[in-house]
Design a protein that fits this description.
The chain is built from 20 helices and 17 strands. It is α+β, with helices and mostly antiparallel strands.
């Protein structure tokens, strides 16, 4: 199913559930409602804002579609106080010389109000519906000074206002009345044609509306997913939307659905690097779709609570392994994920993934399996987006998001969602940061392991979940029998560093700070010097109070040497540098009974913090 078709189907389900506006309407932020009686007399100005937080905030309401970028253009049946009442907030001095906000008029407020009055007098001229008649009477009798005379709240100034009609059945929004809907939904005079999305003959959209909002770094007023504004994009003499005919209804439907997914407060989108990801589920039972979306949201942004994290992991692993799942969760539920990035006035599609929740769970389980490393740098499965911060430049100890390599977020998500190998650009970016800042953290070691292992397993090898038997894979935990030269050299470097730290406590810079980058890239040039210095460090340890530690380190050094060839590699390729980092991390942080006993003989063995 195409992107536009899937989004159009989503809109239809949302509209049936009352979660999306009808055609010709849009979701706007509204703060107050003016209540009218049958004569058009204003009864009260009702506060519709949400007061759940520290400050009241406008609520989203489906009203006739409007919007303006410049000039004077009134909206129908709603607008700001400048248009509705002819007043805005201005500053005035009271008797004590204090400045305060009062209703007044700015440079073009009178023109804006006049345009609102003119548009509605024309719109409501022949109206017979009692609510529309009341609104027409209000328009005809209202004067701007009445705002202050009626004691309307100053908080309403410059906010969006809608109208309510208070009749025998109680207040109701005028813009929701059937007569109002029919009035503002004007039949299209656009040329009809075959819609590529729905397959029906209908008016074809010249420009797709509404514009898509909520994509990071895209134009604040919205960007287009489909547009043609240059001859290079046109063919067969067609212009604008005729090059890819989509009906006005389908264009409205897919745009509205995508805006709902990307709306602030929605839990069906996330940011991964420079890619904004929208996701949703489709199932015959709404409960199954909702549960799938909840688990997808938690997978992308794992919860902090241990119990919730355990429930999430169990659910994903059960589906991935084909085990019985909780009631309401159907592995055959259709899921969709769309990655978008800005491209001038348009949007670029970074990836599009339609599939089933079962496929999603299996691919996520493989992703988690590849990232699994001991000692664990995370208390549970990590969020995919968090891996990108390990590639960012740090300023003041904090990673700067704008330094994450472009396109990497989309590449990472595409690999995670399809079960394909993780991008090698992720490995090279992490190694570049290790060489630059010397931080060999558990997160970075896990990324190195994940990228390398993902390239060594067969594509879609579902049986590989939970296994670590593939030849030359980086192991989950310390593997003393692993004969890979790069892995063993990483272990060797960790032992040499520990010997130096124990023999010469309080050093400002260790061999890790000075030689790690060179040792991991050109070991033959660096290790002879490091080993020569280590003999002196071990001699100091064995003569002093830390003799037990010195003997243990010397033995560990010898065991690692036994698995190395006489001639060290002159250089290590990218993947072997990742193995070097993993070997260093395993040797540096793994606690065994023997090294714990050795550590107990001294207080200067290990003063570093828990791995991050």
């Amino acid at each position: 199913m195409t992107i536009l078709s899937a989004l159009t189907r989503l809109y239809e389900r949302m509209a049936e559930a009352g979660e999306a506006p009808r055609p010709g309407y849009s979701s706007e932020k509204v703060s107050f409602a003016l209540v009218l009686d049958a004569d058009g007399t204003p009864l009260r100005l009702t506060d519709k804002r949400s007061h759940a937080g520290k400050r009241p905030v406008p609520v989203a309401m489906n009203v006739p579609a409007g919007g303006r970028t410049s000039g004077i253009k009134p909206n129908l049946l709603w607008d700001k106080t400048a248009y509705v009442f002819g007043v805005v907030a201005v500053e005035a001095e009271d008797e004590d010389g204090e400045k305060r906000r009062v209703p007044g008029q700015a440079k073009r407020t009178a023109q804006e109000h006049a345009a609102f009055v003119e548009a509605h007098e024309a719109l409501l001229a022949g109206a017979t519906d009692s609510g529309l008649v009341a609104l027409r009477r209000f328009i005809e009798s209202w004067q701007p000074e009445m705002f202050g005379d009626l004691g309307f709240p100053l908080d309403a100034l410059d906010q969006n206002i809608v109208f309510e009609f208070d009749d025998s059945s109680g207040p109701g929004f005028i813009h929701d009345r059937p007569a109002a809907v029919e009035l503002v939904t004007v039949p299209s005079d656009a040329q009809r044609g075959l819609c590529l999305v729905t397959g029906e003959h209908a008016p074809i959209a010249d420009k797709h509306e509404p514009k898509i909002k909520g994509v990071k770094d895209a134009q604040p007023t919205g960007a287009l997913l489909v547009s043609f504004n240059d001859t290079a994009y046109k063919s067969y003499g067609k212009s604008s939307g005729d090059n890819a005919p989509v009906s006005e209804r389908a264009a409205f439907a897919y745009g509205t659905a995508l805006n709902a997914l990307l709306a602030r407060g929605s839990d069906r989108h996330l940011l991964v690097g420079d890619t904004t990801v929208a996701f949703w589920a489709e199932a015959p039972e709404p409960g199954a779709a909702g549960l799938a979306e909840t688990l997808m949201s938690q997978t992308f942004q794992p919860p902090d609570d241990d119990a919730e994290l355990g429930t999430l992991r169990a659910a994903i692993m059960n589906v991935a392994a084909g085990r019985p799942v909780e009631p309401g969760l159907d592995p055959e539920t259709r899921v969709y994920m769309l990655g978008l990035a800005p491209n001038a006035a348009r949007l670029s599609v970074r990836f599009w993934y339609p599939g089933t929740f079962g496929d999603f769970a299996r691919h996520v389980a493989l992703f988690w399996d590849d990232l699994h490393i001991e000692p664990a740098p995370w208390k549970g499965p990590p969020a995919a987006w968090s891996l990108l911060y390990e590639t960012a430049i740090r300023v003041g100890g904090k990673p700067k998001a704008d330094t994450i390599p472009p396109l990497l977020g989309g590449q990472l998500m595409r690999a995670m969602l399809t079960g394909q190998p993780l991008p090698r650009t992720l490995l090279s970016a992490v190694i570049a940061r290790v060489r630059a800042d010397g931080d060999i953290s558990g997160r970075r070691a896990a990324i190195c392991k994940a990228v390398i292992n993902s390239h060594r397993r067969p594509h879609h090898d579902q049986a590989a979940i939970g296994r670590h038997t593939r030849e030359e894979d980086i192991p989950v935990s310390l593997d003393p029998d692993n004969t890979n030269p790069a892995y063993r050299l990483g272990r060797l470097f960790a032992v040499l560093e520990r010997a130096q730290s124990a023999a010469l406590p309080g050093l400002n810079a260790t061999i890790k700070d000075r030689y790690f980058a060179a040792a991991s890239a050109t070991p033959a040039r660096v290790f002879p010097l490091l080993v020569k210095n280590a003999t002196h460090h071990l001699a100091l340890l064995k003569k002093g109070e830390n003799g037990g530690l010195g003997h243990w380190l010397e033995k560990e050094l010898g065991m690692i040497w036994l698995g190395l060839e006489a001639d060290m590699p002159r250089s290590l390729p990218l993947e072997d540098q990742g193995r070097f980092i993993a070997g260093y991390y395993h040797q540096r942080w793994t606690k065994t009974e023997k090294n714990e006993a050795a550590a107990a003989t001294t207080e200067t063995v290990d003063t570093e913090e828990t791995p991050q």
